[in-house]
């Protein structure tokens, strides 16, 4: 298929940008290996909702829209959390 990737993809970050990229890549190619590394817990939550969640007294877990493992299963990707990329 024209859209099929021949190598795996490494995504840094599990924020809106990283998760959206993983989601859209998966739509294009059901089989490509996608690995996501994230300095945080690897789950997905909406940062704009932080202030509303705080005002409503919600916990961090209640703010989370997708926990790491559920997100990995849903998108068929590997997620390495608490893992930071570095450059010299
Ligand atoms: C309180 C609040 C309210 C907001 N409200 C709005 C709004 O109303 N409208 C709007 O458009 N935008 C809003 N924003 C901004 C919006 O949330 C951000 O623009 C958006 O979240 C950025 O997404 P991102 O994926 O680029 O970065 P982030 O969400 O910051 O994600 C970065 C990811 O990269 C990871 N990471 C960083 N460095 C490394 C590293 N070296 N190695 C591995 N992983 C790394 C982090 O752990 C994280 O997972 C708001 C932000 C906040 C905080």
Describe the structure in your own words.
There is one protein chain. The mean pLDDT is about 95. It is globular and about 45 Å long. The relative contact order is 0.23. It is built from four helices and three strands; from the N terminus they run E-H-E-H-H-H-E. The chain has a three-stranded parallel β-sheet with strand order 1-2-3. It has about 90 residues and is α/β, with parallel strands linked by helices. It has one domain (about 10-80): FAD/NAD(P)-binding domain. Flavin-adenine dinucleotide binds next to helix 1 and helix 2.
Strand-helix topology:
Elements: E1 9-12, H1 16-28, E2 34-37, H2 50-55, H3 60-63, H4 68-75, E3 78-80
Parallel strand pairs: 1-2, 2-3
Bound molecules: flavin-adenine dinucleotide (FAD).
Write a compact overview of the structure shown:
By secondary structure, this protein is of the alpha/beta class.
Features:
88 residues; alpha/beta; FAD/NAD(P)-binding domain; 4 helices; binds flavin-adenine dinucleotide; single chain
CATH architecture: 3-Layer(bba) Sandwich
The tally of beta strands, per DSSP, is 3
How are the strands ordered across the major sheet? 1-2-3
- Ligands: flavin-adenine dinucleotide
Strand content: 5-15%
What's the assembly state of these chains? single chain
Q: What is the C-alpha radius of gyration, as a whole number of Å?
A: 14 Å
Low-confidence stretches: none
- Termini distance? 38 Å
Approximately how much helix is present in the residues? 25-40%
User: Which fold name corresponds to the CATH topology?
Assistant: FAD/NAD(P)-binding domain
């Amino acid at each position: 298929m024209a859209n099929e990737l021949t190598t795996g993809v490494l995504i840094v970050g599990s924020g809106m940008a990283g998760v959206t990229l993983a989601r859209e890549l998966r739509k294009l190619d059901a089989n490509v290996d996608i690995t996501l590394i994230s300095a945080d817990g690897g789950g997905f939550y909406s940062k704009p909702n932080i202030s509303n969640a705080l005002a409503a007294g919600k916990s961090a877990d209640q703010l989370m829209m997708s926990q790491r493992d559920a997100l990995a299963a849903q998108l068929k990707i590997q997620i390495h959390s608490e893992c930071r990329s570095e450059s010299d």
